[in-house]
Amino acid sequence: MDVMGDKATLFETGRFVQPSSREDTETPDETGEIADEAAEELRQRLAAEAGDVEAMSVLGAMLLRRGDLDGAEPHLRAATAAGDRAAANNLGVLLHQRGYADEAAGWWRIAAVAGSTAAAHALGRHHRERGDEPAAEYWLRQSAEQGHTLGAYALADLLEHRGDAGAEQWMRVAAERGHREAAYRLARALDRKAAPEADGGDDVRASEEAEQWYRQAAARGHRRAALHLGTILERRGELKEAGRWYLTSAKDGEARAACALGFLLRDAGDTENAAVWWLRAAQDGDGNAANALGALHAERGETQTAERWYRAAMDAGDVNGAYNLGLLCAEQGRTPQAEQWYRRAAYAGHREAANALAILLLRGGDETGAEPWFSKAAEAGSVDAAFNLGILHAGRGEEQAALRWYERAAAAGHTEAALQVGMARLRDGDEQEAERHLRCAAGGGSSEAAYRLATVLDARRPPEPAHELGEPVHRRSECEEWYERAASQGHRRAQVRVGMLAAARGDVVEAARWYREAAEAGSRNGAFNLGLLLAREGSEPEAAVWWTRAADAGHGRAALRLALVYARRGELAEGQRWADRAVSLGPASVTERAERLRDALRQELSA
Predict the structure, then answer these.
(1) Phi/psi zone of residue 318: left (φ > 0), alpha (ψ -120 to 50 degrees), beta?
(2) Is 472 helix (H, G, I), strand (E, B) or coil?
(3) Which residues contact residue 196 at a Cβ distance below 8 angstroms, ignoring those fewer than 6 apart?
(4) Please, what sign has the CA dihedral across residues 162, 166, 172, 173?
(5) How far is it, in rounded angstroms, from Cα 531 to Cα 525?
(6) How many angstroms from the chain centroid is the CA of residue 499?
(7) Are 323 and 304 in contact (CB under 8 A)?
(8) Which of 486, 565, 555 minimizes the C-alpha distance to 519?
(9) String of b and e for 568-592 (b: at least 16 CB within 10 Å)?
(10) Does residue 256 contact residue 280 with C-beta atoms inside 8 Å?
(11) Cβ within 8 Å of residue 524, ≥6 positions away
(12) CA dihedral in degrees (462, 464, 465, 471; nearest 10)?
């Protein structure tokens, strides 16, 4: 057992005894301290030789602190025999260091009975080491109740080990008396009480109190407390202070803090210094930092170095290393190696690796082998895997099974899954549920969901009210907002619809802009509508260009318009050609009109 207690309470002399070991080269101040210490030792030695019991005890304590057990023992025994309880405690410490634990316990008992709180603490520790918890609790409680900080901490540790509710009380006592480990453990207990975060006031108070104790422990040099404090501050957005605590912890050797500091620097754009701290953390065995270094080198195209760091992460026990190796190999087209690493990570429980492995197998045509891995990943919580299972079942025509997986993924926030559920509910006629899921998907950024939500809202929109003078009044509706959101995300049908709404308002410029954007992206309706707009504005040659593009893409009405344009120009053969095309493209109303026009053009050509 190491020497127990702080410098004052261990030796119970009321003095701090300095260690005697010094470097070979000393500063003048250190030389003075050594001289003072030597003078103090000489004074105590002379007093002890003159029979001063307290001097014997202090001298023995000084020699014990120095490690001179042979020199300390006779002085401590003499002082103990004279009834000095501090000497009895320190004699127990000395004997324990020599390996005579039972004899040490005997002297601790004598000192503890005489009122030594340090001896009661040491005796409690002795009984706990031997598995005698009732005796350990008795002596530790004696020590704690008489104000011994280490006794309070050791009692709290014992009670916590047993799951006793009184552990927090004594941990708090030790923390309030300056014990940094107690402050850290109290903070951890309060953190667990506050998580998961809830709206309850007690949880908020526990979280705030935990932060205070982390601060106290960190201020006393507790590196893990500094790490946790940095995490709390970073989560709250106080990045500058978080960085300071991460730095403090990292300099004290906490690899996780060095890793966290690296991520903080990377997010601030300082990748060079981030790499320095990641390197330090990775060399200390932090797998997360090794993965970060691997990703950094992969981004730079340094694949061999990236692979080396991913392997280091894997060797450190971080399964992400194997997954990242799989990703790296897949990007390089090394499919067999990618499958090997994905399997390794998947067998270790990495859900995204299981999903990636399933995708790899599916692309290779092994649907039977892929499905169990999708299922394993989904059951482990992979949202992407749940969505992929939905796709798998939908491809087989198993709509109900597909919907179940889509709903599961949608409930976890998967945008495309929410879209699929919304569309399924629309097909079923459940417009309310459809709208709910489409709103989720649209809010998550799906342009298709925004468009479909707009069409649902548009269908139930009442007719525009008329102004009292008979002029239409335009009020911007929610469906227009969703159309515009989808259009701004590049959804071609939404762009056409926004153009139509603008044209209905008389905003020709805005309508033309949206039609042109849709047409240039390949929308035949956009091209046709743009042609109509241009024709009305007197630009029929340009309109014909866009109608040609639309007709070539299969738009029957555009082909009919072209047939009419060429007929008016007198280019009957070209008009007949486009009329033939319009007949074949349809729809029925277009086919009927195109047939009449074609027959008329034939008569003109044969006349």
Answers:
(1) beta
(2) strand
(3) none
(4) negative
(5) 10
(6) 42
(7) no
(8) 555
(9) eeeebebbbbbbbbbbebeeeebbe
(10) no
(11) 549, 550, 553, 554, 555, 558
(12) -170
Contact 370, 388 (CB under 8 A): no
Q: Name, in order, each residue with C-beta under 8 angstroms of 333's C-beta and a sequence gap of 6 or more.
A: none
Dump pLDDT digits (tens) for 271-301.
999 999 999 999 999 999 999 999 999 999 9
Distance between CA atoms of 517 and 511, rounded to whole angstroms? 10
177 closest CA partner among 117, 105, 254: 117
Phi/psi of residue 165, each to 5°? Answer: -65, -20
Q: CB neighbours of 383 closer than 8 A, spacing ≥ 6?
A: 409, 412, 413, 414, 417
Beta-ladder partners of 466: 472
| pLDDT tens-place string over residues 254-278 | 999 999 999 999 999 999 999 999 9
Please report which confidence band the pLDDT of residue 236 belongs to, taking 50, 70 and 90 as the band edges.
very high
Helix 271-283 to helix 239-251 angle (10° resolution) is: 40
Place of tokens 């957005």: 237
Going by the DSSP 8-state scheme, the letter that residue 199 receives in this structure is S
How is 406-436 classified by DSSP, letter by letter?
HHHHHHTT-HHHHHHHHHHHHHHT-HHHHHH
- H/E element holding 207? helix 201-219
Q: Which pair of structure tokens corresponds to residue 372?
A: 């169990």
The pLDDT tens digits for 193-210 are 877 544 444 577 888 999
CA-nearest of 423, 365, 358 to 384 is 358
Q: What is the pLDDT of residues 67-113, one digit of tens each?
A: 999 999 999 999 999 989 899 999 999 999 999 999 999 999 999 99
Region of residue 302 (left: phi > 0; alpha: psi -120 to 50; beta: else): beta
